């Protein structure tokens, strides 16, 4: 089905931060399959683990014990300070699990029609429940009736959440850094303020870390830049470095809500996907890539700020770690095509925000290539 407006290029091979197209051209990848291939392409440790696992056992079923799934759950819970995990295959499914959890938790609190607070410009997925949670009319258009249980407020505005009087709320769902919405980083005190509101009112704080999690922002999980912990957190994208896997982690009371028979997935947490994710965690740790993402992010931010300082059409250069947004004063979607022509893969989101999500294994030299390439593109574009 024509559900994607694809760019005129097809890739057949990758290595590190580079991709090669079927016509033999080489491209520097500064989007990583939209925050998926954080270890770069064709990572040898991931490839080796997948080959080994495929030759041993790919899939059984959640009817039986799955050792790599238990190990992965233990590692993720250890890193995030959570208690348990439901595994699925995508970000939308991870959020679907979180939203079901919030509903059931609400019923447990005696709320007949539980509601979830969500944010303007958010993105949580394309299933009916998650697109209803998403703060983007284009994503929702044509799929009415939507799931009608959301209260929407501006992202980054804790006072707007505190002002909610509705007695039927059971949870907040929020991206610690918005991705699709335009790389929006909220104030430092935002998540702590949401945590306080949730504690005072008995709501669950549910963080969608599908895009910003897995070391991208310079911490294992973006909430770790603050002193708080969520009740529920969702992951996907970079968890498998390209092998589909999603996860919904829970803590405390939230960890006891989804019991046997209340949720499930045929593929979720199968041996192959979990082995990929375990290898991703080990590689991020061994190669010190969490700290490296923070350093590289700083280097890129400084480079862009310095290089674009004199350009009046650049409204903002912002980001957290390797999640970087350059906001222009005009729509700039065509920059993706111009970049492609120059052998560079970038993305534009929210109409006028250049979004960069390079792999965490980028070298300093590749980072400089990226800085120079993007500055040149932006200056050429705004000059005409
Ligand atoms: N949540 C966030 C924050 C995302 O950025 C995305 C995808 O871009 C999703 C959820 C949905 O993930 P998936 O496309 O794997 O369903």
Task: Provide the descriptors you would attach to this structure in a database record.
alpha/beta, Aspartate Aminotransferase, domain 1, 384 residues, binds pyridoxal-5'-phosphate, 36% helix, 18% strand, Aspartate Aminotransferase, domain 2, 2 domains, 4-stranded mixed β-sheet
Describe it for me?
With 384 residues, the chain is an alpha/beta fold. It has two domains: 11-30 and 289-382, Alpha-Beta Complex (Aspartate Aminotransferase, domain 1); 46-286, 3-Layer(aba) Sandwich (Aspartate Aminotransferase, domain 2), CATH 3.40.640. It is 36% helix and 18% strand. It contains twelve helices and 15 strands. It has helices at 32-35, 44-56, 67-80, 91-108, 128-133, 137-140, 158-162, 190-201, 271-286, 289-308, 335-341, 364-383, and strands spanning 11-15, 18-21, 26-29, 84-88, 115-119, 150-153, 169-174, 204-208, 232-235, 246-250, 314-320, 323-328, 344-345, 347-349, 353-356. The strands form three sheets. It has a seven-stranded mixed beta sheet with strand order 4-10-9-8-7-5-6, sandwiched between helices. Strands 1-2-3-13 form a four-stranded mixed beta sheet. A hairpin with a 4-residue loop joins strand 2 (18-21) and strand 3 (26-29). Helix 2 (44-56) runs antiparallel to helix 9 and helix 3 (67-80) packs parallel to helix 9 (271-286). It is globular, with a radius of gyration of 21 Å. The two termini are 36 Å apart. The mean pLDDT is 98.
């Amino acid at each position: 089905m024509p559900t994607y407006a694809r760019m005129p290029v097809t890739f057949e091979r990758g290595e590190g931060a580079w991709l090669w197209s079927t016509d033999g051209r080489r491209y520097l990848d500064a989007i990583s399959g939209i925050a998926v291939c954080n270890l770069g392409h064709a990572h040898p440790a991931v490839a080796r683990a997948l080959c080994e696992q495929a030759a041993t056992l790919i899939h059984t079923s959640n009817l039986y014990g799955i050792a790599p799934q238990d190990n992965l759950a233990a590692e993720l819970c250890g890193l995030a300070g959570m208690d348990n995990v439901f595994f699925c295959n995508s970000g939308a499914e991870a959020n679907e699990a979180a939203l079901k959890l919030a509903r059931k938790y609400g019923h447990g609190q005696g709320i007949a029609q539980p509601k979830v607070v969500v944010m303007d410009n958010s993105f949580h997925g394309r299933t009916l429940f998650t697109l209803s949670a998403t703060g983007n009319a284009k994503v929702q258009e044509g799929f009415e009736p939507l799931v009608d249980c959301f209260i929407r407020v501006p992202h980054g505005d804790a006072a707007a959440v505190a002002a909610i009087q509705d007695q039927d709320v059971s949870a907040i769902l929020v991206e610690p850094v918005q991705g699709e919405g335009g790389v929006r980083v909220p104030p430092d005190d935002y998540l702590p303020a949401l945590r306080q509101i949730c504690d005072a009112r008995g709501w669950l704080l549910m963080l969608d870390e599908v895009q910003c999690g897995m070391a991208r922002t310079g911490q294992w999980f973006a909430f770790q830049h603050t002193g708080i912990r969520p009740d529920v957190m969702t992951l996907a994208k970079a968890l498998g470095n390209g092998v589909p896997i999603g996860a919904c982690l829970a803590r405390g009371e939230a960890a006891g809500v989804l019991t046997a028979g209340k949720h499930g997935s045929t593929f979720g947490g199968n041996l192959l996907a979990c082995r990929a994710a375990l290898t991703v965690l080990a590689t991020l740790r061994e190669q010190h890539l969490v700290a490296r993402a923070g350093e590289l992010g700083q280097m890129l931010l400084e480079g862009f700020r310095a290089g674009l300082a004199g350009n009046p059409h650049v409204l903002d250069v912002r980001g957290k770690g390797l999640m970087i947004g350059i906001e222009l004063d005009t729509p700039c979607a065509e920059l993706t095509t111009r970049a492609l022509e120059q052998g560079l893969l970038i993305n534009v989101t929210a109409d006028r925000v250049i979004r960069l999500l390079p792999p965490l294994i980028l070298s300093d030299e590749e980072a400089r290539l990226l800085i120079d390439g993007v500055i040149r593109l932006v200056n050429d574009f705004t000059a005409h």
